[in-house]
Amino acid sequence: MSGLLSGCASDQKSFIIAEGVVMTVRDRVYNAFKESFDLDDDTDTSILVYQAYPAWTSIGHMILVAALESEFDTMLETDDILEMSNFEKTVSIMSKYAN
């Protein structure tokens, strides 16, 4: 699975971000990962695993959390922050914060 092209049905709920721009939760999470870890548009999301992907260290995790909180205009719960172990899990968690 790569980039923004893959996803589960529950992750496909679309949100209007700005006039004429519609993004899914998956797209928004990918944008946060991209910003946090300087990813290319075609990065395979299956390699995005906490402490296995080189940039996703404990410091990288906090950078990602800040980017997600900004993207979704929310404050994440501590349990959710700790459960973010890979890209797919993060998409699932962020689905409940989608507005």
Please characterize this protein's 3D structure.
The protein has one domain (9-95): Non-ribosomal Peptide Synthetase Peptidyl Carrier Protein, Chain A. 43% of the residues lie in helices and 9% in strands. The chain has four helices and two strands, in the order ββαααα.
Summarize the structure.
This protein is mainly alpha-helical and 99 residues long.
Reconstruct the topology from this structure.
Layout: E1 14-18, E2 21-24, H1 25-37, H2 58-72, H3 78-83, H4 87-95
Antiparallel strand pairs: 1-2
Helix pairs in contact: 1-2, 1-4
**CATH topology, what is it called?**
Non-ribosomal Peptide Synthetase Peptidyl Carrier Protein, Chain A
Number of strands: 2
Regions with little confidence, pLDDT below 50 for 5+ residues: 1-10
Bulk shape: globular
Quickly count the domains. Answer: 1
Helix content: 40-55%
Summed over residues and divided by their number, the pLDDT gives a mean of 87
The number of distinct helices, counting runs of at least 4 residues, comes to 4
For the record, the CATH class is Mainly Alpha
Q: What value does the Rg take, in angstroms?
A: 12 Å
CATH homology superfamily name: ACP-like
Strand order of the largest sheet: 1-2
Task: Give helix and strand order, one letter per element, not per position.
Answer: EEHHHH
Could you say which structural class the secondary elements and strand pairing correspond to?
mainly alpha
- CATH architectural name: Orthogonal Bundle
Largest sheet: 2 strands, antiparallel
Alpha-carbon distance between the two ends: 25 Å
Strand content: 5-15%
